[in-house]
Design brief:
The complex is a heterotrimer of chains A (about 200), B (about 375) and C (about 220). Chain A contains six helices and four strands; from the N terminus they run αααβαβαβαβ. By secondary structure, chain A is of the alpha/beta class. Chain A has a four-stranded parallel beta sheet. In chain A, helix 2 packs antiparallel against helix 6 and helix 3 crosses helix 6. The longest helix of chain A has 19 residues. Chain A is elongated, with a radius of gyration of 21 Å. Chain A starts with 12 loop residues before the first helix and ends with a strand. By secondary structure, chain B is an alpha+beta fold. Chain B has a single domain, classed as Cytochrome-c3 Hydrogenase, chain B, CATH 1.10.645. A three-stranded antiparallel beta sheet of chain B has the order 1-2-3. In chain B, helix 4 packs antiparallel against helix 5 and helix 6 packs antiparallel against helix 11. Classes of the chains: A alpha/beta (about 200), B alpha+beta (about 375), C alpha/beta (about 220). Chains B and C meet through helix 1, helix 3, helix 8, strand 6 and strand 7 of B and strand 3, strand 4, strand 6 and helix 3 of C.
Chain lengths: ~200, ~375, ~220
């Protein structure tokens, strides 16, 4: 069953994986185990995701100092499970804390694309929400949501570290309600959350 | 050997800000470097051309966010130069207190970010603990943790709060004791000493020609401080000595730059205590906002042909604003605001300093020059 | 009290520099004077030089070699469209003489110098300089580069070209340094014909239908 032009043998490991996967899938569906595993696994992943965010170690501008202070001894974000990682491939939250200039628009989209699913984006500070005090500038994008889908907006210039931790809490609640991956989101028209909106 | 270009940044924990350092390495030795800035270029100089003189102060806070007060004061002194305003003495003392507390907070942020690059994560927590103390003091003065918008053209926006002098003295004296903790942690740590001594030599003659100023220059033995060479504010009425390091003939290394900043924190603390003692009217009296002891009347417009500039001692070097009057709305806006950022000039020099060392020395050398990209990119 | 340079000696040192410069260059259109910083209770003087663009490189070399001006602080470019044809472009260069350099060394350790600032005088005195170079009406303004005199001028000139459009002859490796590298050639945002975003926007609120408008703000413009 090899395709034309391919020169490996008829029986290859890809085929074996597919056949075994199909057989197991049918068996699980027949015995209703698949649903149980789906529900339990989904809830486990949801709990793990919302209790341990790994934000990216990205400091753009002033809000980055408040992000650092949130990791400092007084506000201590790490007790909530927040652990900053340096590589985007190991992160699930992109915390955008500064204005996005035209030069940085491409790198930040690449950072976002390098992050594996499930991932969320938090826009921290006025510059990331709408361009902030630099909304008139020739070099600043009017908000990071022009290039990346944003889940939580944290207003402030800069927002206090308590507001940042509140933003992460709102993201946690959102994951609890809406699920982890975009495919699991029941309500497709869920609008982004803004800190202070209640 | 294999030569290749490595791009460190823009997202990199070493960079202390958003910029790229392209490093050409031969094996592990650095052969060439190209710094690439401009990732947070906001066009502040253009925006300021359509803002009032008072509306520009919050933009200047956000230039170098680690030391916001020093940049807004730097702009305000240049604006007072342009509009020819004389500031009352009590306001100068209050400004000096705010600037020196901010200098301590800025150096603490530097130390708290530099030591994790070296590998010492404990100093991050220690320094942020002290920085929170300083930020509490600045919050009392200015109203916010960062970006206070504190000085006004002609003075300050409000007086020292009730009880500020007592809290400030207590915190600064506690801070002077806590500096010994940093010295105990870092100066007796073999790893810190090996990673910072003998690394990143910068010769003083080269530094002056390249335009490097401030603690980076004083680490090389050059005793130049804008606060005594072109005196402003009330620094000449207080008793202080600039912090200069005795470096070796090969130049200043990272350890010298660290020691200069530690010494500067002590000097700033002593300046604050002296200023609180010497403030005219006493630190416990309280004037309402708008009192002539706090702020002088200033013209709102600057006509065409008027210019003003001011050199200011920023924790990173010598910052300068050049303002040309006669802009929009019949002179209410400046025609041109030009900002001299010390780090814009120091970063290419620091990139040259790295040539010859190993790539693992890049965070140590780069961090020791204290880059802050907000002011670099304006 | 704290140390401070002596003001009269600073003015005297500034006057020395001015006399020397005028003796050498005043025939070619250079003029200079001592100016005081206005505002503040301290008297601080600086040397103001008005230099035509043709002799700028020579004046820079003279300042650096003869008068020990060793530090280039900032190079600013300004576009004056309403002052053309005499001065459509202006380059303002701020220099400094630090004069406390080449510290002596003792057994491999450098000794910091100066313990008393008030005794400094003459060519040891720190001075500030402001050089104003006026470029008459042209579509491609350019002045000689001083990169070979002060290395600190290098990145300043790159930034001035990037943002204002004034070119520097003799500058090697001129490139965009603050704007993205792919910015179209000829776009220099600080020129006065380029306006900010929403420059003509006169609305107090940016919602066209007025939902967020307060009643007392009806009819107001920004």
């Amino acid at each position: 069953m090899a395709d034309d032009g391919q020169n490996y043998s008829i029986f290859n490991s890809r085929l074996l994986v597919d056949v075994v996967g199909d057989v197991t899938d049918e068996a699980l569906k027949a015995s209703r185990l698949k649903e149980i595993i789906g529900v339990i696994g989904g809830r486990l992943f949801n709990w793990a995701s919302r209790k341990s965010f790994f934000p990216l170690h990205l400091g753009i501008k002033c809000c980055a100092l408040e992000m650092a202070a949130a990791g400092g001894p007084r506000f201590d974000a790490q007790r909530f499970g927040l652990f900053f990682r340096s590589s985007p491939r190991q992160c699930d939250v992109l915390l955008v804390n500064g204005p996005i200039s035209k030069k940085f628009a491409d790198p930040i989209v690449r950072l976002w694309e390098q992050m594996p699913e499930p991932k969320w984006c938090i826009a921290m500070g006025e510059c990331a929400i709408s361009g902030g005090p630099y909304f008139q500038s020739y070099n600043v994008l009017e908000g990071v949501d022009t290039v990346i889908p944003v889940d939580v907006y944290i207003p402030g210039c800069p927002p206090r570290p308590e507001a940042l931790i509140d933003g992460f809490d709102l993201l946690r609640q959102r994951i609890l309600l809406n699920g982890v991956s975009p495919a699991m989101v029941a309500d497709d028209t869920a609008s982004p959350v803004v800190v202070g909106d209640d | 050997m294999a030569e290749m270009w490595i791009s460190m940044g823009p997202q990199h924990p070493m960079t202390h800000g958003l910029w790229t350092l392209k490093v050409k390495i031969d094996g592990e030795t650095i052969v060439d470097t190209i710094p690439d800035l401009g990732y947070i270029h906001r066009g502040v100089e253009k925006i300021c051309e359509s803002r009032d003189f008072t509306q520009i102060t919050p933009y200047c806070d956000r230039l170098c966010y680690a030391s916001a007060n020093t940049w807004s004061h730097s702009y305000i002194y240049a604006a007072e130069n342009l509009l020819e305003v004389e500031v009352p003495e009590r306001a100068e003392y209050i400004r000096l207190i705010a600037v020196e507390i901010q200098r301590i907070a800025s150096h603490l942020m530097w130390l708290g970010a530099y030591c994790p690059d070296i590998g010492n994560l404990t100093a991050f927590v220690y320094c942020l603990r002290e920085r929170e103390m300083m930020l509490d003091l600045l919050q009392e003065l200015g109203g916010s943790r960062m970006h206070y918008n504190f000085p006004r053209i002609g003075g300050v926006k409000r007086d020292l709060p009730h009880g500020f002098a007592m809290r400030c003295r207590a915190k600064v004296k506690l801070f002077l004791q806590r500096i010994h903790e940093y010295e105990a942690l870092l100066d007796e740590s073999t790893i810190f000493l090996i990673r910072t001594q003998g690394v990143g030599y910068a010769k003083p003659e080269e530094m002056v020609n390249h335009g490097v100023t401030g603690p980076n220059l004083r680490a090389g033995g050059v005793n130049y401080d804008v606060r005594w060479a072109h005196p402003y504010s009330v620094y000449d009425e207080l008793d202080w000595t600039p912090s200069v390091e005795r470096s070796s003939v090969k130049g200043a290394d990272c350890y010298d730059r660290y020691r200069v900043r530690l010494d500067e924190m002590k000097t700033s603390a002593e300046l604050i205590l002296q200023a609180l003692d010497g403030i005219p009217g006493g630190a416990e009296t309280f004037h309402e906002s708008g009192d002539p002891a706090l702020i002088a009347k200033a013209p709102a417009r600057a006509s065409d042909g008027q210019t003003g500039f001011h050199h200011f001692e920023d924790p990173r070097g010598e910052s300068m604003f050049y303002l040309a009057g006669g802009g929009d709305e019949r002179g209410k806006n400046p025609y041109r605001v030009s900002i001299r950022s010390p780090m814009f000039i120091t970063i290419p020099y620091a990139a040259k300093c790295m040539i010859g060392y190993k790539i693992a020395d890049v965070p140590a050398i780069m961090g020791s020059f204290d880059p802050c990209i907000g002011e670099t990119d304006r | 009290m704290g140390m401070k340079v002596n003001h009269e000696k600073q003015v005297a040192a500034a006057n020395d520099v001015i006399t020397a410069l005028e003796a050498e260059f005043s025939g070619e259109g250079l003029s200079c004077e001592v100016r005081m910083h206005a505002g503040g209770k301290h008297q601080r003087s600086y040397v103001y030089i008005d230099c035509p663009p043709s002799i700028w490189a020579i004046v820079a070399e003279t300042l650096s070699e003869v008068h020990a001006v060793d530090h280039c602080s900032m190079i600013t470019g300004i576009h004056w469209p309403e002052k053309s044809p005499e001065m459509e472009w202006q380059v303002v260069v701020h220099l400094m003489r630090m004069s406390v350099r080449n510290p002596p060394s003792n057994e491999g350790i450098v000794m910091p110098i100066i313990s008393d600032a008030s005794i400094l005088q003459g060519s040891d005195m720190p001075l500030e300089f402001e050089v104003s170079i006026a470029i008459p009406e042209t579509r491609n303004p350019s002045i000689p580069s001083v990169q070979h005199v002060w290395v600190g001028a290098d990145w300043n000139e790159k930034e001035t070209w990037d943002l204002v459009g004034i070119d520097f002859e003799g500058h090697n490796e001129m490139r965009r340094v603050l704007q993205p590298h792919e910015t179209p050639a000829g776009f220099h945002p600080l020129q006065k014909q380029h306006k900010l975003r929403y420059h003509e926007f006169n609305e107090m609120y940016d919602d066209a239908q007025g939902f967020a408008r307060k009643s007392e703000d009806i009819g107001k413009v920004k």
